[in-house]
Amino acid sequence: MENDSSRNGPHAPAQTREPFQPGALVIATLCNPREKFWGMILALAPAGLSLSGAELASFEDLTVMVRDGEPFTPAVVFFPIHRIERVELDLPDGNLSSLSQRFFAKTGLEPSAALAPHLDQDNSNNSSRPHASQEPA
Hints:
Radius of gyration: 18 Å
Number of strands: 5
Distance between the termini: 65 Å
CATH architecture: Roll
Number of helices: 5
Low-confidence stretches: 1-14, 121-137
Number of domains: 1
Mean pLDDT: 82
Strand content: 25-35%
Shape: globular
Helix content: 10-25%
Strand order of the largest sheet: 4-3-2-1-5
Largest sheet: 5 strands, antiparallel
């Protein structure tokens, strides 16, 4: 019985995974200027939020571009904390698919693979990305 009470007691939040960790897919609502950004969290700190992704207004164009095999490099951005109005997990809502689910349905690519920042030293996973940074000679 002690195990059950500890899971439901004051220690429960410490035992559950924090939702806004690096790698989480989110929608950030920003102010001044007002905009929304869909992407993967790279870092969340008191100074602000780092994401790899795209402006929400460009989402449909992005999916078409990736589906058609056009080169795509996600934007890697930092938003200072004073610009962040809200950050929400990209989750389905009732019968509405999440943006991540829509991205996968339209492109066949996992959003986490497509939005992973492209580093020159990391050549291990280029085949799963929607573009290749360099073709072998």
